Structures are given as structure tokens and as C-alpha cells.
Amino acid sequence: MASLNFFFKLAFLGCFIFGVAKGQGLKVGYYKEKCPNLEYIVKGIISQVIRRDPTLAAPLLRMQFHDCFVRGCDGSVLLESRNKQSEKDAFPNLSLRGFEVIDQVKAAVEKACPNVVSCADILTIVARDVTFQIMGPHWEVELGRKDGKVSILNEALTQLIPPSANINALIQGFKNRGLSVKDLVVLSGSHTIGISHCSSFGNRLYNFTGRNDADPTLDPNYVVELKRKCPPGDQNSIVEMDPGSSLKFDVSYFTLVSKRRGLFESDAALLNNKETRDYLTYQSIKYGPTFFKDFGDSMVKMGRIGVVTGKYAGEIRKVCTRVN
Ligand code: HEM
Ligand SMILES: *[C@@H]1O[C@H](CO)[C@@H](O)[C@H](O)[C@H]1NC(C)=O
Ligand SMILES: CC(=O)N[C@H]1CO[C@H](CO)[C@@H](O)[C@@H]1O
Hints:
By secondary structure, the protein is mostly helical. The chain has a domain at 167-299: Peroxidase, domain 2 (Orthogonal Bundle). It has helices at 2-18, 38-52, 57-69, 99-112, 119-133, 153-159, 167-175, 181-188, 220-229, 252-258, 265-268, 274-284, 291-302, and strands spanning 27-28, 142-143, 195-197, 238-240. It has a two-stranded antiparallel ribbon with strand order 1-2. It has a two-stranded antiparallel sheet with strand order 3-4. It binds protoporphyrin IX containing FE and 2-acetamido-2-deoxy-beta-D-glucopyranose (2 copies).
């Protein structure tokens, strides 16, 4: 009994720290009455924004990942603090972009339906729409999140999974939030778009094990190419994660990783577990038979992590960068 009790406490603690993907209170069509044109409004802005600057799709998709993995999907990634101490100011966030797009969408939505739609839900719709806009899948979004009131720099540092994570850390990090091994490999497929700074993987190129070597799990020909783009100590240069098609949401990530050309250790790590490896292989033959469907399903699950719902919880922010 004592140990059972301990187990429940631990489980509760787990929910408390990360928030798991239960998603009670969310539903498709949540704003049907109070803001019937919501999804139409967002889609219109996003299609314009992405046509003008396709490179914004990747950071806007990533933004929801960062929101949901820190304190749950509660819009905390958007908050600003006067003394630069919110999640946004943390190191891993320094590469997030596109906050002005969220502000633009929020302003248009407020105009149509004041005080109704949360910033957390706007992030969710935007993540879906940017993906679709660059030839990716489309899925139904569950809505009904409230916005949280807290954002803490240190939580972004400790709760976001680093690119150096090994397979166990990755699986555990997803599991803590109610996400499966399959969700891990499916959502990692987001790295089929976008860019990375050399600083996120440079350690793999130089002196990886202390013998002036590169990461042996990385294709040696790819190492040569990457070293050209990222000289020793270079923090600021950027490389495409999926060279040649980083602006198109496709399945080539799985082929790349299978060929040992995944950019991060966390990408390469997916070859170290039977389930994730089998998924990589399966998607890289026959042009990704189930990836698009799987991606939508896993994004919906990710969108349930630690959500704040109900009449009396959280708030609907008027402006996404600050609490009311
Ligand atoms: C599995 C654990 C993950 C790790 C360790 C990880 C790590 C990273 C890192 C280090 C970058 C490059 C940042 C930079 O240097 O500029 C990046 C980029 C990106 N990540 Fe992940 N990520 C993970 C999962 C995800 C998930 C779940 C999503 C979305 C659902 C995602 C979407 C993206 C996108 C779209 C980019 C490109 C951003 C851009 O072009 O600005 N990642 N990720
Ligand atoms: C490589 O790593 C080893 C062990 O950490 C260290 O002693 C050595 O100075 C490093 N070499 C360079 C060129 O940084
Ligand atoms: C390098 C970079 O883009 N930094 C940004 C991190 O986030 C803050 C807050 O939004 C921006 O002001 C920085 O420009």
C-alpha cells in the first residue's frame, strides 16, 4: 500500500512538472459558436505569410513543440517579461522566430471575436496551417485551451530535450508527457524542414570523443560537407536540416536518418531502438506510406500535453506576449 501510494505521488509529480497528454476539455470545433470564422481567418493570414516568407513555416511549427514541452500547451512560450526571464529568453529559444506572426494572427482574431480565443489555441492552429502550406498533411485541431500566466526561463533550459539526447533520454522525455515511442519518431520527422545553427551539432564534427574525431555514427562524407559549412567554433552559421528540400514538408528526413545523415545526435539516436528504427526504414521505402497521417495524429496528441481547460482555469490573453 505504501509503495502504491508512493507510485501515485510520483505519477502526480510527473503530471505536475510536465503535464501529460490527456487533453480533457479539448474538442474539434470548440469555437464553432463563439468564433465561427476562426480557422478561416488564421488560414488566410498564414497562407499569405508563408507565401511571402516560406522559411517562417519551420520555426512556427517548432514553436508549438516548445510551448507544449514546457509547462504544457498554455502559450507560455509567447510571454515576455520585463527582465528577460521568461521561456523566450532561454538559450534554446534564441532560434525561435515568427512571434510577430502570432501577434498578427491574434490581432485579427481579437477583431473578429474579442476575448474568446486563447493564444495557446492560436499556436495550435498556426502549427497545423504552416505545415499544410508547405505541402505537408492537414489534420483536425482540437481546441479549448486556456492561456497560462507563468513563463520561466529556467524551465525551458531544463525541460526542452537537448539535441545531444540519446535514445533513452528521448523516450523518457516523451513518456513523461504521455507521448509514445512512435510519437517520438513521427514528430522528429519535423526535421524534414527548417534549419539549424552549427552550435546545435558542431560537437559531432570536431573532437567528438576527445581524439580529434567526428561522431562515428555520422556518414563520413556528410562530415566533410558539414565541416565546410561549420568551421571549428562557428556558432552562428546555419545549415538546412534536409538539404535541398528544407522548405518542403516531405518524408526525406527518414531516408536521411537511415543513411546516417541525421543532423543531431537525437536524430541519429532513432537508429538505436528497434521500434524507431523499423519506423524509419518503413517510411524511407515507398515514399512514406503512413507518415502524413501519423504526423497529424501525433501533433494532436502533443497538443494535449498539460492543457489548461475549463471555465475557471487560466485566462484568454488579450495580447499573447503578456498576461491580462
Ligand atoms: C525529439 C526531440 C527534439 C530535439 C532534440 C530537437 C532539437 C532541435 C534543434 C537543436 C533544432 C535547431 C535549432 C537551431 O540550432 O536553430 C531544431 C529545429 C527544429 N525543430 Fe526540433 N527537436 C526535437 C523535436 C522536435 C519536434 C517534436 C518538432 C515539432 C513538432 C520539432 C520541430 C523543429 C523544426 C521545424 C525545426 C527547424 C526550425 C527552423 O527552421 O528555424 N522538433 N530542433
Ligand atoms: C580534444 O579533446 C581532448 C579531451 O577532452 C582534449 O584534451 C584536447 O585538447 C581536445 N583537442 C582540441 C583540438 O580541442
Ligand atoms: C537570436 C534571436 O532570434 N533571438 C530572439 C529570441 O527571442 C527574443 C524574444 O522574442 C527576441 O527578441 C530575440 O531576437
